[in-house]
Specification:
It is built from ten helices and no strands. The chain is mainly alpha-helical and about 180 residues long. The longest helix is centred in the middle third of the chain and has 32 residues. The protein is elongated.
C-alpha cells in the first residue's frame, strides 16, 4: 500500500520521510480511526484517505516539526474518520428514506454463482445497468460517488443498482444457473 502513496512524491528524501511516517504512525492512526468508526474496514479506509491527504499536502506535512508530527497526524486521522462517519450516516439515512415496495435482492445470492457465467450475464445487461454495477461493485464507489462521476442523481444510481441486481438474478434463473 505504501508504494501507492510514495509514487506521487518527487524526491527520494520525500519518499523516505513519508515511509517513516507510514511505519511509525499507521497503527496509531488505525486506533484513532477505529475509535471513531467502530468498524475495521471503515477505519482502514480512513487511514488510507489520511495517507492520501498527507501525500497530496506533503509540503505542509513536512513543515510540521517532528515533535508535533504525531499530534498533527492524529488530528488529520480523527477528522478524516469523522467525515467518513458523517458520510456513511448520511448515506444510511438516505437509503432508509427511499420508498421501494419490492423486496431487495440478497448479495449472498451472487456469491454462490460461477464467476465466468456471472461475468457473461452481466455483459448481456443493458449498458446503464452494467455501468452502475461496475462502478458500484468492481470500483467500490458509493452511490453518491457514482452520481458525481456519471452526472446522474444518487437516487437514480441506487434504483439502477437494485434493478440491475434483479435483472441479473432473473437472467441467471432463466439460464438455469441458479434455482430460486
Amino acid at each position: 500500500m505504501i508504494t501507492v502513496f510514495i509514487a506521487a512524491l518527487e524526491t527520494e528524501y520525500e519518499r523516505s520521510l513519508f515511509e517513516q511516517w507510514y511505519l511509525r504512525y499507521r497503527q496509531t492512526m488505525y486506533a484513532v480511526a477505529y475509535g471513531v468508526l467502530h468498524n475495521r474496514e471503515d477505519a482502514e479506509d480512513a487511514v488510507h484517505q489520511t495517507f492520501i491527504n498527507l501525500a497530496e499536502k506533503y509540503e505542509k506535512a513536512a513543515s510540521v516539526p517532528e515533535s508535533e508530527m504525531k499530534a498533527f497526524i492524529i488530528v488529520i486521522t480523527r477528522n478524516t474518520a469523522i467525515n467518513l462517519y458523517r458520510r456513511n450516516k448520511r448515506e444510511a439515512e438516505q437509503l432508509t428514506t427511499l420508498e421501494d415496495d419490492s423486496e431487495p435482492v440478497e448479495t449472498d445470492f451472487f456469491e454462490q454463482i460461477d464467476y465466468e457465467m456471472l461475468v457473461q450475464t452481466i455483459a448481456a445487461l443493458p449498458k446503464k445497468y452494467k455501468d452502475v454495477l461496475f462502478l458500484r461493485f468492481v470500483q467500490e464507489l458509493s452511490a453518491k460517488e457514482v452520481a458525481e462521476l456519471t452526472g446522474i442523481p444518487a437516487e437514480t444510481v441506487r434504483k439502477r443498482t437494485e434493478r440491475a441486481k434483479k435483472l441479473l438474478k432473473l437472467s441467471l434463473e432463466r439460464s438455469g444457473i441458479i434455482v430460486s
